[in-house]
Specification:
heterodimer, A: 176 residues, mainly alpha, Four Helix Bundle (Hemerythrin (Met), subunit A), globular, B: 106 residues
Chain lengths: 176, 106
């Protein structure tokens, strides 16, 4: 019963701040609403029994990704571009289409009848790390994916630096 | 019947947030909101993963709690490259309206 009350409170905060992202005028307010949404989703992860994912959600999503987004919004000073309208005529078709699609999927899902399993494991740090770095031959092999993710992050960082640096270099040459 | 937290409620919350994320990504014109909508949709997928993992018995429930970690890392890479592209296009066009970015107008 108590879990349901916490879930409803956190879910209402998450959906409300997601709607704030949809309706806010300035991208900075949108980013701040997104942080609130991420934090309440982290609370729901903890409630469901996956505290490690909740912590990673707070650290990486709310702490790093949205921080980067906020930083870029401030650097580009996109606030002066307040003439960009929020929606255009295409939105008149997109919004009802997405709502109808979500309604259909929800209708099918409600009739499927899934339930929590009592023997499910709690995703604590110990269990998660033991599974993730299980290098035994008959193990799940997540550590290979972990290495690949490292390569992906390195290459995306290199790509971002190259893309942003080139333009900065030409700017300096023009000033000279 | 006693009111308890059902697995279905988690999936419905994930569905609502996913729908809002898709609407933000497709219908908003400011390019920052497009990126934020993609992040919202990815978050909803993570929530759905964890919610479904909790419906599986003992050892099977671990996989659904590992995959969101990889999704979060991929989202970090996506935000990194996406924001670099936004910076580059903004320097060229002096605009954050996604309609100004379309060179392939039919």
């Amino acid at each position: 019963m108590l879990a349901l009350i916490y879930f409803i409170i956190l879910g209402v905060i998450a959906v409300g701040s997601a709607l704030c992202v949809l309706l806010s005028k300035h991208p900075l307010y949108g980013a701040l609403s997104l942080v609130v949404s991420m934090l309440s989703l982290a609370g729901i992860y903890g409630l469901l029994g996956s505290p490690f994912i909740g912590v990673v959600q707070i650290m990486v999503y709310a702490g790093a990704i949205i921080m980067l987004l906020t930083f870029v919004i401030m650097v580009l000073n996109a606030g002066r571009d307040s003439k960009t309208p929020r929606f255009d005529k295409v939105s008149l078709f997109v919004i009802p289409a997405a709502i109808v699609l979500a309604g259909l999927v929800g209708f099918v899902m409600v009739r499927s009848g899934i339930a929590f399993d009592a023997t499910t494991l709690r995703g604590s740090v110990k269990l998660t790390s033991e599974t993730l770095f299980n290098t035994a031959q008959e193990g799940p092999g997540y550590f290979v994916l972990f290495e690949v993710i490292g390569l992906l992050l390195l290459s995306s960082m290199g790509a971002a630096v190259l893309m942003a640096k080139k333009r900065l270099g030409t700017d300096n040459e023009e000033e000279k | 019947m006693e009111m308890e937290l059902q697995a279905m409620y988690v999936q419905i919350l994930a569905l609502v947030i996913f729908a809002i994320g898709i609407i933000v990504a497709v219908s908003r014109r400011n390019v920052f909101f497009v990126l934020m909508g993609v992040e919202l949709a990815l978050n909803a997928v993570n929530l759905s993963f964890v919610g479904f993992a909790k419906t599986l018995p003992a050892d099977l429930s671990i996989a659904g709690q590992i995959v969101p970690l990889f999704t979060i890392a991929v989202a970090a890479a996506e935000a990194c490259v996406g924001l670099a592209m936004v910076i580059m296009i903004f320097r060229n066009r002096e605009s954050v309206d996604s309609n100004d970015f379309s060179n392939l107008k039919g």
